[in-house]
Specification:
The complex is a heterodimer.
Chain A: H1 6-11, H2 13-17, H3 23-35, H4 37-53, E1 58-60, H5 64-88, H6 93-104, H7 113-122, H8 130-135, H9 140-179, H10 198-203, E2 208-214, E3 219-226, E4 231-236, E5 246-254, E6 259-265, E7 273-278, E8 286-295, E9 306-310
Antiparallel strand pairs in A: 2-3, 2-9, 3-4, 4-7, 5-6, 5-8, 8-9
Chain B: E1 23-25, H1 36-47, H2 51-73, H3 76-93, H4 104-123, H5 125-130, H6 136-142, H7 153-165, H8 168-178, H9 184-191, H10 195-209, H11 216-222
Helix pairs in contact in B: 1-2, 2-3, 2-4, 3-4, 6-7, 8-10, 9-10
Classes of the chains: A alpha+beta, B mainly alpha.
Amino acid sequence: MTGLPHHEASSALAAVALYSVPAETWHGVRSHAEDCAECRNEFARFEEAVAELATLIPQRAMNLGHAAGIRSRLLMRARSERDAISTTRPREKPDLTRGVASLAGFGTRFTPGSQRAVNASASEPGSAPASSRTQTKWRPPVRLLVVPFLLLLGLGGVQMGRLVRERNLLRAELSTRTSATLPADAERGPESAMHPDLISAVAGPDVQLLALLNRSAQPVGRVFWNPTSSQWTIVTYNLRQPRQGRVFQLWVTDASNQHASLGTFSPDPSGSFSFQVNHAVQDERLLNVSITEERAGGAEAPAGPLIASGAPAP
Amino acid sequence: MRAGPTSLDSPDDKSASADDEQVEHVTQSATRQLGDVDELALIDRIRERDETALGALYDRWVRSVYSLVFQLLLDPDDAEDVVEDVFWQIWRAASLYDPEENSVGTWILALARRSALERMRNSRRARATERVQMQYLLELASSYAPAEGDQHTSRRRKLVASILRLPPESARILDLAYFGGMLESEIASGVGEEVERVRRRAMHALHGLRGSEIDSEQREMQL
C-alpha cells in the first residue's frame, strides 16, 4: 500500500475517474488502487461508467483528408520506430559488436547467409520484366560481367543502408547515455559516473548482453556486463514512470540467489535511462538482472513489483 | 481473480463522410458487432509492433475519439492534434494495457479524454468557468432516440434512464466534470459547495450510471 490512506483514496475514486483532480491526486489514488483490490475494482467500474457516457456524444466526422493524413503519419512513425527497434534488438551478440565496430570506423561487416539469399533472389536476372529481356540484345561476355556487377551494387546498397541506420541508432543511444541523469543512489558515488569509453564497455570481447523484458515480454532495456572488469552498462527504454513516492531499483542476483542493488533510478518521460556501475558478481555466476519498483530511497532486498528482468544466455 | 470488464461496444467503423460538419448520433448508425476479442487481438499485434494493427484500430475508433475530443475542446485543429497524440500513445503504451482492468474501448476513451483535458487545462482554462451553467448531459439524455439496427439500444436506454434519474445536483457535477473538464476545486467554487461534497456527488452520479442502488439512508449520509 502506498502512503495515501484508504478512506482518502476511496473518496476520490469517482473524481479521479472523471479526471477532475490535480495530477498529484490522480497519481496518488491510482497508485493506491494498484495495491488495493477494493479501490481497484471500484475504480475500474467508474472508468467504465465514464467511458459509457461517450457513446451518447454526437458523432462528428473528421475532415477526410486530415484523418487520412493523421493515419498515414501515425503508421509511418510506427513503422520507423519498429524498424529502429528491430535493428537494435539484441538477437545475437556479434550483430551489436559489428554495429559498434562500424560506428567507430573499424571492424568488418558480414552479410548473413539468409540476407545474401534474399538479395540474390531479388537480383535474379530472370526476375526482370519479360519485355526488357526480349528487347535488349546482350552479348554473352558483357552479360557475364554486368550481372555480377549489378548484384554487387545491390548488395552494397542494402549493406550501406543498414550500416547508416545502425550507426544513427547507436549515435542516438550514446548521446542519450551521456545526457542521462545519474542514479539517485548516492552511495554509488563516483562509480556511477559515465565511463568515457562507452564503446569498449558495450562491445569488448568479454561483454555479455542481456535483454531486459517487461511482464509482457516486451524489450525495455539492455544490460552490457563485462565479468572481467565487473563493469555494467544499463540502458532502458519504453519504461513507464514509477508511481508517486517510488523509484525503480536495479538488482543483480547471483547463482546463490543473493541480491545486490546496483542503484535506484527514474527514467525520463520517454522511458529512457542509462548508467554505468562497477559491481563484481561472486564467481562470475550471474542468475539474472531485474528491476523492481520500490519506495523512494530503495530497498535492502527486492520487495516491490517486478518491472523487468533479464537472464544471461545459457 | 477479478471479473473481466464490461465490454464497451466498438464504434461503427464505416468511412467518414466527406462533409466534416456532418453530425449523427453513434446510436443512429449501424453498429458493427465487434467483440472485445477482436480488439484484444489488435492490441496484441500492436504490442508486437505491427503498425497495420494500429491502422485497423485507428479506423475503428477515430470517429469516436475525435467526437469526444471535439466535444471537449470545441476546436477542430486542437481535436485533430489530440487524436494523433492519442493513437501514438496507444502505439507506445499498448504493453501497459491490462485487459483485466478495462475493455479496450474504455482504455482508449479514457486516454482520449485525459489528453483532451490536459490540452484544455494547459491552454484554455478560462473556458471552464463558461461552463458552470451548462446542462449538456441532460440535453443529451433527453434527446436520445434509439437508432434502427443499434444492437445496444437497451443498454443505452438504461444509461439514459440512469442519467435522467440522477439528482439534479449530481447530474450537474457530472456535467461540469465530464463535459466542462473542470477540476473538482473549480466545480466546488463554481457551485458554491465544498470539495468533499463535490466528490461525494460525483461518486453518487457514477454509482447511478452503473445502476448501483444506494439506499436512501446511505444517500443521505453521502450527500
